[in-house]
Structure formats: C-alpha cells, structure tokens
Write a structure and sequence with these properties.
- The protein starts with a helix and ends with a strand.
- The model is unreliable at 1-19 and 100-117 (pLDDT under 50).
- Strand 19 and strand 20 (327-343) form a beta hairpin.
- It is mainly beta.
- The chain has a 22-stranded antiparallel beta barrel. Strands 3-2-5-6 form a 4-stranded antiparallel beta sheet, with no helix packed on it. A 4-stranded mixed beta sheet has the order 8-13-14-12, with no helix packed on it.
- Helices cover 4% and strands 55% of the residues.
C-alpha cells in the first residue's frame, strides 16, 4: 500500500523538478458504429500513455505543448490517429472502427460480442409492471434455466441438469454468500434483493477460470452501481407495487449522490406477500415477509484508483415452505465487501483489482405451524459464515494478447442444532413431562478453498480469436464437533486435502459482418459441498428420505464441449447453443440399508451420498428476435436437456422438460406493450429411484404494459396467467407435513401494478 502512495508522489516531485506545466485531458473512446464506449483502450498522447476505463472514458494530466498527436488503439479495432490543439482537449471523442471480434472480460460490457465464450448477458431483466419475489425468480426467462420451488419464496435456480453448488453463483465479480439451512430455505438467491440487481451474466459451462471453481455454469449477479459522469448530484426514487393474487404489497426507496470523488447508493425495500391461489382456486401456503437495505459508497482516490465499500442487511420473517417439513421463522443476512482497483499502471500492466468480503446468515426454522407440532415440536437454529477474497491483474503483453492472472480464497463455516420436544405419546396422550432431545446438524464444520488461475485471449486476426485458461484449487474440510453416529460410521471424519484442476480452450470465428461462431472445450471440477460431505440425518432432497453425508467423496468432473453460432442484422437476431457433457465421479445418493433413519414417520433407512462413475448431459438452446416493423418486434426461444445416470441406467433427477417461449413487443417513447407465452412439454423422462413422477405439459400467457405519463414517473400493469391455467412446473416440490396432500401449483390469474417516481 505504501508503494501505491509513494509512486504518484514521486511522479509529482519529478514534474515539479522539471518545471513543466500540466494540462488536463479527458474524453471518450467509442465504437464508430454506435455510442458504446471501448474499454481498456490505449491512448498515446505525445509519447505519454493513457488508458480508458471499463466504459471507454479517460482522464489524465499531461505536459503542456503547442500541439498534440493522439493515437488510440485497442485489440480488435483499427488504430485511430488525430491531432489536437490545447483548447480541444477538454472533451475529446475518438471513434474506433472494429476489425475483429473482441471478447472482453465478463463484468465489463453488456454487448454479446464482448463476452466470454458461451456467455449470455441478461440486461433489463425485469420490467416495471411486476416484481420478482427473489433473485431466483429472475432466472425463469433465461433459456436453459428453471427453478426448484418449495413455496412462494427462496427459489433455487437449475441450469440444464446442474443445480446447487454445481452452479457457481457470485455477486459483483466474486462475492459469495452461502445458505445456513440444510434444506435450502435460504439459498444464495435470497440474500440480495432482486430490485437491487442491474443485470445477470451467465457463462454456460466451465469456460472461465477466473471466478472460482466452475463446474456447470458461472452466474454473476451484478448489483446497481453509480456513474457520476451520467448522474451528478443528488437523486433517488420511490416505488410501490401490488398483486391481486395473494394481496401482496411492496415498497422501495433509493437515494444516490455523486461528485468527481465520492459517490453513494442507498436502497431500502419491503415486501409483504400473502399465500396465492392456483388456477383452480386452491390456496398454496406461500406467504412471506422481507425487508432489507443496502449502502454502497465509492471513493476515487485518484483518476486511476478507486475504493468501494458495500454493506447489506436482509431479513425474512414467517416464510412458508409447503414443500419442506418446516417453515422459516427468521432469516437474517449480513454482507460486507470492499473493492479496490488500480488501473492505467503501465503499457504492459493495465490494472490490479482486489476484493475482500464477509457474510453471515442466522436462520431459525420450526414446525410450529404444521400438524405434527401437536406431537413433537422441532426448532432448528443454524448459522453460516463465509469469508473470502480475490486479487487479479490484467496484463497486455502485446497488442494482440490480453491475460488475466490471480488468486482467490473462500472459507465457509456452519453450525447449528435441532431441538425436538416430544409432547405426546404414540397414542396421542399428553406426556406428563415433555422430553427434549438435541442433535447437531452441521457438526461445527468448515471448508477452505484456495485457487490460482490464469486466462488469456489472443486476437490472431480480424476473424479469429482464441482463449485458454487454467485453474488449480486446494480444498480441505474439517468437523470440530462430530456426532456419535458419524464417528461410528466413518471413524476419522477429516478427509485428505483435495486438489482439483480446471482448464478451458475456445475459438471464435467471425467470417463476415453479423456472423459469429464459437467452439469451447472445458474441464470443470467440483469438490463435495458441505451437505454432501457432512449432513447428519436431515431431509434435504425432494424425496422423504433422511440424507447422510460422506466426507470421503471424490471431486466430480464435467468434461464439456459446446458449439454456438449467431447471426445479427439490423432487423433480425438468431442464435443456437449445442452442448454435451461427460460427467465422471458424479455425486448422487443411494438408499443405504445399513443406516437406519432417526425419524419414526419417514422411510426406515437413510440415503448416503456417493460417487457414480459416469453420467452424460446433452441438449440445445435456440433464440431469435425479429423487428417486424418500426417499434414492433417478435422474439422466441427454445431449450431442451437430457441427462442420464449411466451407472444406474436411468435419467438424472430434476431435469426440466423441453420448453419454448414466444412474444410480441410494441414500444414507443412513452409507452410499451408486451405479450408473452410459454409452452412446456410433458416430462416423462424421470428418475424413479428418487421418487419422481411424470408432469403434464402446459401453456401460459401473460400481458404487460407500461407508460410514462410524466417525466420521472413510470407506471406498469400486468395480467399474468391470463386464462387462469391450473399448472405446475416439473421441479416444484410436493407438500410435506401439511394437513392435506398436494403439489405446489403455480399462481392462477394475477393482476399486478407497479409505479416508480425518480427524481
């Protein structure tokens, strides 16, 4: 840190000694064909190097001269040269002509041609007409994604056949938070409010090594940020919404401010959602209450150095989970992160970035609202803490090469107990003295993971670009308070440290304007998560079995190949992804007749996690958009996945059926209208071993509209499931521990209203 301070001081002293006057220069380097800024461009101004930031802006002080020769260059663009007088330097705009496909780092650009291989960037992910219940709700409209639904809240995203930790979900380029509840009442998608999300970025497979171990996909959830150049001064917004199905209400406030050196963004949100009714009028226990706030503060120490601190607290209360044995009484989340960026360091070293973070989740669940609470009360109090960080450097060895190198680390700790109080005997008679037993859930366990990575891009020619990356990780796990049954089953439960290796290689070919072809190969490895290693007799699956962990599981490996292409014109965009995965040491669970269950109401034996030798996955995803006439466009998408357990000769569980969608959108300057439809096929390709049943297909139709009657005021309306269809998604869970038996059906007809005023 001292060197970072001494370096600019040394430059200042050198300037004073040379008695040279400095002049300020700033501006924007953008693409010639549009207004998009060109990130990380190099400017040579009278032999002095200056670099643009992530959005193409630059600002620097250079020695005063009578005339200035400026040369702007970036990988994949033709070099631009111009001359300028001193009076022209206050706001320069330099246009670069593209000459090759530029695959910039994820987190930098929302243009598909600038993304990592097989990536998909989702912008404007929710319209101002209806609001997502949690972040998991946002994934429903991304081809290839679906969600596991256990109630009206806490939805877990599933991508193709991958779920849970097989999907690496991060926030803002590296922050990770982890659920405390073993039944995933609080997945990572519940700890950040969806209204605070700016966009979601997806790398579809193990095709990037930079953001932690990657197995099935990398999902980067980008929260809102602030740009003082676009919005100087103080501003904010207030918003509110209502849904008729469930009598659900929400409110949101935001305040932001910025100048050249400081900026801040403060958000607060409140949701009060009731239990909704399905298409046939059945009320689904799904109510929840949440409130949260977040504060993001940035400080631009110099033109090329920035520090940003983020603080967030989120609270959930009385969350009903009809598909689980218990409900959430309370869930409290605390998240802190600190980011540092130092850029424009030298012609070869563009930037160094660093991130540190810590999260804590306190979770309390019980069966006090369930029928069996009359016989036995169950209360579980669990806690999870996650700490980590990463550092990365961006290198430019040559004009055609870009290299990212760095390291990251994550520490995860969980503990908690389940308290069971027997109130009545088997005949239903009250016990004279209730009996209480306590058992451990997480066994005071911890997992450490550290990794190093390098990833490079070579812009070989205007038509060809190549990418390659390597990653090595070391993972260790420990149990400080093992349960007696776990010791009896495994003896020494501390497994050996595990090394995993990830690798990727891809090529991108652009034969002509508008055409893009990509072929990517990847090897992703994932060590077992804490549930798979250490869970102690807890129902964590879709079936009623208790699950028991296995601390000696081998890492599972995904060897994936993916081919994609896209065609884009002024009026038409279309693309496709075709993928195949060969999975080894795949982690699943089998019924172990040597392990008796602890519960007297469920199956006699427990499931134990194990590795199988081989499994496969393959499928296709299609998407297209057509501008029919001015202001009117149509879009369509299709996704299909098959996955097979080769050892057991049956499909892998929890795979969504084939799905298609289509829509029409008419948009004017002050109002818009959007009609959408989904068509989902039957799912009869199921795993009988995990108790799956076939699910009938369905179609559903929505209509959304928005208007801006006054400057700063937007109003949105929506009619969802217009025809009041009674349907369920294949991944929706069945009722557990409820007075009646049912399956979680989706909401019936629902009218929504949302209004927002910005100032």
């Amino acid at each position: 840190m001292k060197k970072l301070i001494i370096f600019p001081v040394f430059l200042l002293l050198a300037g004073l000694l040379s008695a040279q006057q400095l002049i300020s220069i700033k501006g924007l380097v953008k693409e010639e064909t549009g207004n998009a800024g060109v990130p990380f461009a190099t400017l040579i101004i009278n032999n002095q190097y200056v670099y643009t930031d992530e959005k193409g802006h630059f600002e620097a002080s250079i020695p005063e001269a009578d005339q200035y020769l400026i040369e702007a260059q970036q990988l994949g663009y033709e070099t631009a040269t111009l001359e300028a007088a001193p009076g022209d330097l206050s706001q320069l705009h330099i246009a670069l002509h593209p000459k090759a496909v530029v695959l910039e780092q994820i987190l930098v650009s929302d243009r598909p041609m600038h993304c990592s291989p097989q990536s998909n960037v989702i912008c404007d992910h929710h319209k101002q007409s209806s609001q997502p219940r949690d972040v998991g709700d946002l994934f429903k409209e991304i081809p290839g994604f679906s969600v596991i639904k256990k109630g009206g809240y806490a939805m877990d995203p599933v991508f193709r056949s991958f779920k849970y930790e097989q999907i690496n979900v991060i926030y803002d380029g590296g922050l990770q938070t982890t659920h405390a509840c073993p039944a995933r009442m609080d997945p990572t998608t519940t700890h950040v409010n969806p209204d605070d999300i700016d966009k979601i970025e997806v790398i579809k497979g193990p095709f990037s090594m930079r953001y932690g171990p990657s197995f099935g996909a990398i999902v980067n959830v980008v929260t809102q940020s602030f740009d003082y150049q676009k919005q100087p001064g103080i501003g904010g917004s207030v918003a509110g919404g209502y849904e008729t199905n469930g009598n659900s209400k929400l409110a949101k406030v935001a305040l932001h401010g910025a100048n050249r050196q400081f900026d801040f963004l403060l958000n607060g949100d409140l949701k009060d959602y009731g239990s909704y009714k399905s298409g046939n009028g059945t009320e689904i226990p799904s109510s929840f209450h949440t409130y949260d706030y977040s504060l993001k503060v940035g400080y631009n120490a110099q033109a090329n150095q920035r520090i940003q601190a983020n603080w967030r607290q989120a609270f959930s209360r009385d969350v009903l989970h009809a598909g689980l044995n218990m409900d959430t009484d309370s869930d409290d989340t605390y998240i802190f992160s600190l980011d540092y960026q130092y850029k424009n360091i030298s012609p070869k070293l563009y930037s160094i970035t660093a991130k540190a973070y810590g999260t804590k989740v306190d979770h309390v669940m019980s069966n006090l609202r369930r029928p069996n609470a009359m016989m036995m009360e169950m209360i579980s109090d669990v806690e999870a803490q996650t700490y980590g960080g990463r550092v990365e450097s961006t290198l430019m060895p040559s004009r055609k090469t870009l290299v990212y190198a760095g390291a990251d680390y994550r520490y995860l700790w969980r503990d908690g107990q389940r308290e069971m109080t027997m109130l009545r005997n088997m005949n239903g008679d009250p016990l004279p003295m209730p009996m209480t037993t306590t058992s451990t859930i997480w066994q005071d366990a911890a997992i450490h993971n550290g990794g190093i990575f390098a990833e490079g891009r070579w812009f070989a020619s205007p038509k060809w670009t190549f990418l390659g990356g390597l990653r090595a990780d070391l993972t260790s796990a420990s149990i400080a308070d093992p349960a007696p049954g776990f010791l009896e089953l495994y003896g020494n439960v501390d497994a050996d440290d595990q090394w995993t290796l990830g690798a990727t290689a891809s090529t991108t070919f652009q034969p002509a304007t508008g055409w893009l072809f990509q072929l990517a190969l990847g090897r992703g490895a994932r060590t077992a998560n804490m549930i798979e290693r250490l869970i102690n007799h807890f129902t964590v699956g879709r079936d009623p079995y208790e699950y028991v962990g296995n601390p000696f599981l081998k890492p599972e490996v995904n060897n994936q190949v993916e081919f994609s292409f896209s065609k884009k014109t002024n009026r038409f965009t279309a693309g496709a992804n075709v993928f195949y995965s060969y999975l080894t040491n795949y982690i699943t669970a089998f019924v172990d007749t040597t392990i008796r269950a602890t519960s007297m109401t469920g199956p006699m034996y427990a499931r134990r996690f194990t590795n199988i030798d081989e499994a496969t996955q393959w499928g296709v995803e299609l998407h297209g958009e057509w501008v029919i006439v001015k202001n009117l466009s149509a879009n369509a998408a299709l996704s299909f996945t098959r996955a097979q357990n080769l050892d057991w000769d049956e499909p892998l569980p929890e795979i969504s059926p084939m799905e298609a969608s289509a829509g029409l959108r008419y948009e004017r300057e002050r109002w818009w209208l959007d009609a959408r439809s989904r068509y989902v096929d039957n799912q009869d390709n199921i795993s009988a071993n995990f108790g799956e049943t076939t699910t009938p297909g369905f179609s559903v139709y929505d209509l959304r509209a928005g208007v801006e009657p006054l400057k700063g005021l937007s109003v949105g309306l929506a009619a969802l499931n217009i025809f009041d269809r009674h349907y369920r998604e294949h991944l929706n869970r069945a009722y557990r521990n409820q007075p009646v038996q049912n399956v979680i059906y989706e909401p019936g007809r629902n009218f929504t209203f949302f209004a927002k005023y910005s100032f």
